[in-house]
Amino acid sequence: MTDSPASTAALIVSCLENEGVTHVFGIPGEENIRLVDAISRSSIRYVLARHEQGASFMAEVYGRLTGRAGVCSATLGPGAINLLLGTADATTNSTPLIALSAQVGMDRSFKESHQGVDLVSMFAPVTKWSALAATPGAVPEIFRKAFKLAQTERPGAVYLAIPEDVEEAPAQGEPLPVNVPRPDEPSRGQVERAAALLRAAASPIVLAGHGAARTGAGPALRRFAETLGIPVATTFHGKGVFPDDHPLALGAVGFMRHDYVNFGFDRADLIIAVGYELQEFDPARINPAGDTSIIHLHRFPAEVDAHYDVAVGLHSDIGRSLDALAAASGPRTQADPRAPANPGGADSGRNRIRALLAAELARGQRDDRFPLAPARIVADTRAALRREDIVLVDTGALKMWMARLYPTYEPNTCLFSNGLSPWPGRCPAPSVRRSPGGLPGARRHRRRRVLDEFPGDRDRAAARGAVRHPDLGR
To answer: pTM for this structure?
Structure first.
């Protein structure tokens, strides 16, 4: 390449390095070849995908596992449009992601032109921010803003379009310093209001969601539950933030109204929602009448829903809010989870739910039917993997079985897409894993194994259709 090191493409790469980017997932094209070439001469590894959609999912998994924005790259037009699904999935799963694509040059952006479509408008509804780098001088600010928005609560995707003439133009400026927003301490008045509700509750229950997992609130959640003796259920995305083998663990709430774990909410007179987001799980499943009091702990206010009427909200660092609330409430009666159960009380119901789940998983271990029963698949998977190993689960009925029965002990070790739930979400992981160095999202977990062979309903239906296809035989 004859591209100068002082080109805007080189500046973009410097901005990516400044943000701590180590991998870019994508497919090169004529209009973004200068950027790809600049990456090849940097500390960043360009991971070649088989399809741009796969690249977007790779970036999403990277963001999910690391908490840092995963970056995917494509050329203009159809290449950029192929990034759309994984980008939308990242936003609905509250995962930081930066989608970069080429765009027609500014010298022809105002008129009908080959492969010219309004990509910024196309990505706007499924991102936190969608923008065009219209001049070389805008690059340092636009990239700093993109990463700040993508990684700040509530995290999500950002799309940036880079016109081809801007990419090859001389660079202007340099990367800006990275400033990380810090959360505030919880409001003392709100903590006292929440503590009063908690002291008055006879049967409180915790619902821990994705926000608790991605902000590292697991240790604080455990302290809170043990201090107050309150059982903890999780959403699909929250699995592992509270270990399933803890005596106070109830498991993951199910999509069915009367799944085992949901019974724990039938007796509850107070729900402490910790990092819960409505896209994860319909609150009507656990609060059908909308009359159970709710304490909402998160970095941002709750979405409006008739079945999620917040009595008190604590909008600050989740771990600090939990510690402050536990201190203000004081220990509850029989806070020790190992204390004898009170027949007919909340602890009896908790033990009953745990026993039902354990019995179903044990039956699955002994189930020798063929085709394999879902519970057997779950049981064998759990037996094969260590506590810290990672499993990726596709969308479909098996997702429900994994969420319900798969014991999980650490955050982000049982991964679902439970926002948009696109069925090909598992496909990129094998491609990345087979590349040298392993799954980039798990590089900091070098001793962890990754299992991603859980096909969803559409995969199985497609396989059955292929077998019956007249051109392929039976």
So the answer is: 0.85
